[in-house]
Design a protein that fits this description.
Layout: H1 3-21, E1 26-29, H2 46-51, E2 59-63, E3 67-71, H3 76-83, E4 89-92, H4 101-108, E5 114-116, H5 124-134, E6 140-142, H6 147-151, E7 164-165, H7 168-171, H8 175-189, E8 193-196, H9 199-206, E9 208-209, E10 222-225, E11 230-234, H10 241-249, E12 252-256, H11 259-265, E13 272-275, H12 282-287, E14 293-296, H13 300-306, H14 310-337, H15 341-344, H16 350-362, E15 367-370, E16 375-378, E17 401-407, E18 409-411, E19 414-415, E20 418-424, H17 429-446, E21 449-451, H18 456-468, E22 479-481, E23 490-495, E24 509-512, E25 515-518, E26 522-525, E27 528-538, E28 541-548, H19 566-583, H20 589-598
Helix pairs in contact: 14-16, 17-18
Length: about 600
């Protein structure tokens, strides 16, 4: 057993010692920060610190005898690797016979025992689920103990990056207008106040951005808003006097981040508070006095933020052209290196490709950062759905195989997310067949026309049918919403087989990313972002379609054109013509010649 493996066993044993001291029989460690964010800052990576598993999603449950970790299909291979030797059992979520962590925890606890967790990291919805499962056994809950914080002596500092404001030429809507819209909604709900804890909701509402989470330009914040003022709870050192002044002009008061709990405790009796239980943590909910009426519903900001206005949409199109230039230049570079000694002798690695793309994006006007850790996956690494290379896992590019690249960027003009799978050398007929099936799924979804009221759960099949015909499938959703210079994964709309009944509305930006993953061999994913736009209206109602925003060619060398329908051929040709028209003005002559060949009609 290696040294690193021992560390996690030692940490679990240290946790058990603290559990015994506090009379706790089971302890939950989730992946959340205090805001139910998808990605979290280093300060909040308690589950990774305790287990060694670094994927973005997972839950660790520890009893005095056992420890188990739950994660989803994206991370099964990674988790198996990282948990080896730790004594922590991997529970593959959604697989036959695998209990949920709630069921597992309930089965381990005896009547009258105690479950512990840091209540600031557990959302109201999960707390309800835990109570429903455990209350019949008279389980006690200890929600105030951050036990990991007592073990983690060199824990990173609490984040407090500078907050900056985003001008109206980018947002298309003023802070004042957004606050007025929210207050009209509050009046309609007969609420005296609203509490918002979602970081992207708050950043959008106040037209501010920050840097407290890698790749997600949001500040750590809460807000409590009534009809007279809006209080923004942030680390005070993060707010300059200029930003403070600008916010004050719109009736926004700055208060220290953790003060929100005190202010909630002082809410007047018989007043009403509007909030979203799913994004508010247990500690926030516990701070609200019993006499305050809670009106629980989804945040007004979620849908408002998802439906991009005309200014945002125009900016996003510009961002995708800039990003398309960078990614197209990368694909050209990949093509050129195939004849070099460095490539042939295995000196060009996944991390080299990531660095090259970051350099190319950095040359684009308005570029700020990447929108997530780049997934550059050579050969069999492509079969690990959310693999991102580090110094330990990094390998040279694999000859005569695929290179899967899922990357994105943050521009002042918007957020991008694109996946391309490039051919390195020569690929087999079977590989081309698989690539073509994934491409067809991408085109068939992008070409959909659908009626008003249609949701992603109804459209998902379009992207899977070409794979299903070959007895193949993929174990992730087909599409997610994308923010505007915000989170790369944004609700409420999704394209997935289940659980996504939010109807599409013109202005929503969503990804289209079917894939195929063959463990130990290769992976293929092709992802574009799409904007929902009106198509036409008939006596039967309104109909919508998608406008593809991403501007990067697909790899012609992997396409079996005889497998494409006439409609798919026309679609591919029209898309490639648009790519050439939009991207070629920013390329060198050599790059233009290459792009003309890559986008020639099939």
């Amino acid at each position: 057993m290696g040294m690193t493996e021992n560390i996690y066993r030692q940490r679990i044993e240290a946790l058990r010692g603290l559990m015994k001291e506090n009379g706790i029989h089971a302890y939950l460690i989730v992946s959340n920060d205090f805001h139910a964010s998808e990605y979290v800052g280093d300060y909040f990576k308690c589950r990774a610190y305790m287990s060694g598993f670094t994927g973005s999603a997972g839950t660790l449950a520890v009893t005095l005898e056992e420890a188990a970790l739950w994660t989803d299909g994206r991370y099964f291979l990674q988790a198996e690797d990282q948990l080896a030797g730790t004594g922590i059992l991997l529970q593959k979520m959604g697989e036959p016979g695998v209990p949920t962590f709630v069921e597992w925890t309930a089965s381990r606890l005896e009547a009258g025992q105690t479950l512990g967790y840091d209540g600031r990291t557990i959302g109201g919805g999960l707390a309800d689920t835990l109570h429903k499962a455990l209350d019949p056994k008279y389980i006690r809950f200890m929600e105030t103990e951050d036990l990991v914080g007592k073990i983690w002596t060199d824990r990173p500092a609490f984040p407090a990056a500078p907050i900056w404001t985003l001008e109206e030429k980018y947002t298309g809507r003023s802070r004042k207008d957004k606050l007025e819209g929210l207050r009209r909604h509050m009046a309609g709900c007969r609420a005296d106040r609203t509490l918002i804890a979602g970081l992207d909701d708050i950043a959008w509402l106040f037209n501010i951005r920050g840097g407290d989470i890698d790749f997600n330009p949001v500040p750590m914040a809460y807000t409590l808003i009534d009809f007279d003022k809006a209080v923004l709870y942030v680390s005070e050192e993060a707010v300059s006097s200029d930003v403070r002044q600008e916010l004050a002009e719109d009736g926004v008061e700055i208060r220290p981040y953790f003060t929100v709990y005190e202010d909630l405790r002082e809410l007047p009796e018989y007043s009403s508070l509007l909030l979203d239980r799913s994004s508010c943590n247990v500690a926030l909910l516990a701070a609200v006095p019993a006499g305050v009426g809670i009106i629980s519903q989804g945040n007004w900001t979620v849908r408002e933020k998802a439906v991009k206005n005309s200014v945002e949409a125009a900016n996003i199109r510009r961002a995708h052209i800039r990003d398309g230039v960078a990614v197209t230049k990368l694909l050209y570079w990949l093509d050129q290196i195939l004849d070099t000694v460095d490539y042939k002798e295995g000196r060009i690695t996944e991390l080299d490709v990531a660095a090259r793309l970051l350099e190319l994006r950095g040359q684009q006007d308005g570029f700020l950062d990447q929108s997530f850790a780049p997934i550059i996956a050579a050969g069999s690494h492509g079969a690990i759905v959310h693999y991102d290379p580090d110094e330990e896992s990094n390998i040279p590019l694999v000859h005569d195989s695929f290179l899967l690249m899922d990357t994105g960027a943050q521009y002042l003009q918007g957020t991008t997310d694109i996946t391309r799978t490039a051919v390195l050398g020569t690929v087999t007929e079977e590989m081309k067949e698989h690539y073509t099936a994934v491409l067809r799924g991408n085109l068939d979804l992008a070409g959909a026309v659908f009626c008003k009221g249609c949701s992603g759960v109804k459209l998902d099949t379009l992207a899977r049918l070409p794979l299903w015909e070959l007895g193949l499938d993929f174990n992730h959703g087909t599409g997610h919403g994308v923010g505007y210079l915000l989170n790369v994964h944004e609700g409420p709309q999704r394209i997935a087989m289940a659980g996504s009944n939010v109807p599409f509305v013109p202005g929503m930006v969503t990804s289209d990313e079917p894939g195929l993953y063959l463990a130990g061999r290769y992976g293929i994913r092709l992802e574009n972002l799409m904007l929902c736009v009106p198509a036409f209206t008939t006596e039967q109602g309104e109909f919508y379609r998608f406008e593809t925003l991403t501007m990067v060619p697909f790899d012609r060398r992997a396409i079996l054109t005889d497998r494409l329908s006439e409609k798919e051929k026309q679609q591919l040709n029209a898309y490639h013509a648009a790519v050439y028209e939009n991207i070629s003005p920013y390329l060198t002559l050599e790059e233009c010649v290459w792009l003309r060949d890559m986008t020639a009609p099939v």
